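From the shared-data thread, chain only:
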Amino acid sequence: MHISLAGFAVCAGLLLIGYCSRATLIVALMGSLAFGSTAVVSLTMLGGSSPLAFTLIAFVLLLFVLIRRTTLDDLAVVFTKYRAAWIALGLMFYVCVGTALLPRLFAGRTNAFVPVHGVIFEVPLGPVSGNVTQTSYFVLGVLTFLALSVLLLCRANLQKMRNGFFAWCVLHAALGLTDFASKLLGAGDVLAPIRTAAYAMVTEAEEAGFSRIVGGYSEASAFGGATLATLAFAFTYWRRTLSSTALALSIALLVLLMLCTSSTAYVGAFAISVPLILALGRSMLAGRFSRNDLMLFAVVLLAVVIILSMYLYNDRQFAPVVHLFESTILNKPLSNSGQERTNWNLTSLQSFLDTGGLGIGFGSSRASSWIIAVISQIGLLGALFVAALVMELSRSIGRPGSGEIDPEMRALHDSVRACALAWLVGASIGSGSADPGLLFFVALATVLACRTQCARFSMRIGEPTSTLDRDYG
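Structure, as tokens:
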């Protein structure tokens, strides 16, 4: 076992930031998500697996919740109020049992892709270290969901969670801009000292002549997926509140998204923009454009006019952009990387069929899509559990502008929900694990808590103002 001093230094800095914002563990946990290549330790007994910074802070959070005197009573409330708590707990036990049995039950009956010294090889199915590491990450996510659900029964902690999401967005944007500026100035990877994870680091690659931005992650695809999620959060929060901070973050993250050269980010951005375009079109046809809708429409129209004017003035300056589009979108399926990832997905689907729909066990193989990884690793029953959790996350709490919904809670709910769904869209395009990630479980706990607070707000409409300020956690 090798301890990373840089990883512990990052965790200490995050805890200090959280302490200064009076939300130590929540802000530190969310901020740690921006450091996707910073490990705190390397476990040689598990093939060099390197738990990332968020694992240490999540463990501290779990310990904090365990030592609270009211935790058992609060857990009873959580399991009474949240159907998702039972679904998540059932899925956790199903995953653990399946991981122990399925790779041994179907050993040698199908093939799997596993990493060996950073290189992916196709081998006969069997138990691998990924069964332990990936399942451990998933179990940590479920336990963190339950712990946060307990803490977020208190409305004040929801305000801390909002600060935590903003801290994550700010740190992610800052690391991305730092990485971009250093490469633009020819300084190379200045964030290399914090990249302590035992991953293959693809931090100084180029795509169609453009330097790939990786921020705090190990490669551009992971950074692009996180940028997609943070942009969804900041943009939705701006639309709900007209916050200038959220607007500034949205602009910075949109620029990083366009410059990151990630196919995952570009395809994901198109996918999540479709609902927005449909909503704007429906509002326009109904004649109820809001002020921020008009502002957004004007900004987009201005950008289109400027781009068309530049193109008409000198179309040659767009040649590098066209080349980048062809490389990352049009020609991506034909590239060696694209064909390799297609082979991973086809083999994973074949594994699902070879096991009669039961799956091959969590972490047994590598895919190139979260959806395909879920189907192949935990089978049809596990996929139904996951789909139920996604449906719980996707539910709405009321129409914007409704007086029956606490506007502050609605803004946080819609922003976090958009963030998590954008995260899943990116994972469905380019993630190789069946684990939806810690962010998914944090977001699920947050949106469920927001709905609880909004329900209390609806019941208290008409009561004296003094009662609205009381802590009902």
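The chain has one domain: 2-468.
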